[in-house]
Design brief:
Blueprint (H helix, E strand, L loop, with lengths): L1 E26 L6 E11 L4 E6 L5 E7 L3 E14 L13 H7 L6 H5 L14 H8 L8 H15 L1 E2 L10 H7 L1 E2 L1 H14 L4 E8 L16 E9 L3 E5 L11 E7 L8 E7 L3 E11 L7
Parallel strand pairs: 6-7
Antiparallel strand pairs: 1-4, 1-5, 1-12, 1-13, 2-5, 3-4, 8-9, 8-11, 9-10
Helix pairs in contact: 3-6, 5-6
Protein name: Transglutaminase domain protein
Organism: Thiorhodococcus drewsii AZ1
InterPro entries: Bac_transglu_N, Papain-like_cys_pep_sf, Transglutaminase-like
């Protein structure tokens, strides 16, 4: 399935900004289930410096610097992506999770060894004891890792309330665990903290989820939003994604922008600026299917 994505971020400042430096994670990555067919990032005002590089995690990162006075900043990313579902094996055909942890220390398996960074605490995901104990209820001795992770995903979906007003981008895992509420970022952070506490390699995934209007209604432009989930490394299969916000393994409707240890590694847009005073932020996201034209 092919999608066209537009992500517009606009800052309006109460006072003039004289200089800003920013980085953006807005171009979708390439993976076994996703091909980025085209992608551009436009910045207004025109930046004095702009360049793109690939970071440690393989993400496409755009850096830009605006060195002229401005009262507003607008960044527009447009991409075309093709997503192909990745078939999963039967749950009980995957190795038990303890064996998956052991494989991370097998020097003969480069992919597994490189993933050990995703077992360590990160700035926004400490190894929270409560999150570890919560995950351990799914990761019982000898349980297949895919079966255990699906169970953990389902428990988060059913036992935590989706509440956009309850958290911010800096809410700690311990608070989410205690209050049992949050948003997609919080649920991904919670799951990753618990998994890493057990020694399982788990990473944060940032992207988009296609949303469809109710039957008979027109889709509102700009009404989509960024989304987040997590992935786990399963030996001999690779990284498998899990979306606890919706209790589903991401398929054709999930588009990946970037991966990292936590949200801080993959923020859509961040930077520093001089001046500005108070600021108003507007974000509009559109994820639209590209209809295939039948062959003549």
């Amino acid at each position: 399935m092919k999608f066209r994505i537009q992500h517009v971020t606009r800052y309006e400042y109460a006072e003039t900004v004289s200089l800003c430096h920013s980085i953006a994670h807005l171009k979708p990555i390439q993976s076994r289930r996703q091909q980025c067919l085209a992608s551009t990032v436009r910045v207004s005002p025109w930046p004095a410096v702009a360049r793109e590089h690939e970071d440690f995690f393989g993400n496409r990162v755009n850096y830009f610097s605006i060195q002229q006075a401005h009262d507003a900043l607008e960044v527009t990313a447009q991409s075309e992506v093709e997503v192909t579902p990745f078939p999963l094996p039967e749950e009980d055909k995957t190795p038990d999770w303890e064996r998956a942890v052991e494989r991370l220390y097998d020097k003969g398996d480069g992919l597994m060894v490189e993933a050990r960074i995703f077992t360590l605490p990160s700035p926004q995901i400490p190894l929270d004891p409560a999150a570890r104990d919560y995950a351990a209820l799914s990761f019982t001795p000898g349980r297949p890792i895919l079966e255990a992770t699906l169970d953990l995903m389902g428990r988060i979906y059913h036992e935590f309330e989706y509440d956009p007003a309850s958290t911010t981008v800096t809410t700690p895992v311990a608070e989410v665990m205690a209050n049992r509420r949050g948003v997609c970022q919080d649920f991904a952070h919670l799951a990753i903290s618990g998994l890493r506490g057990l020694g399982v390699a788990a990473r944060y995934v940032s992207g988009y989820l296609e949303t469809l209007p109710p039957p008979g209604q027109v889709k509102l432009q700009g009404a989509d939003a960024s989304h987040a989930w997590f992935s786990v490394l399963i030996p001999d299969i690779g990284w498998v994604d899990f979306d606890p916000t919706n209790d589903q393994v991401p398929g054709e409707q999930h588009i990946t922008t970037a991966i990292g240890r936590d949200f801080q590694d993959v923020t859509p847009l961040r930077g520093i600026f001089y001046g500005g005073g108070t600021q108003d932020l507007m974000v509009a996201v559109d994820v639209d299917r590209i209809e295939e034209t039948p062959a003549a």
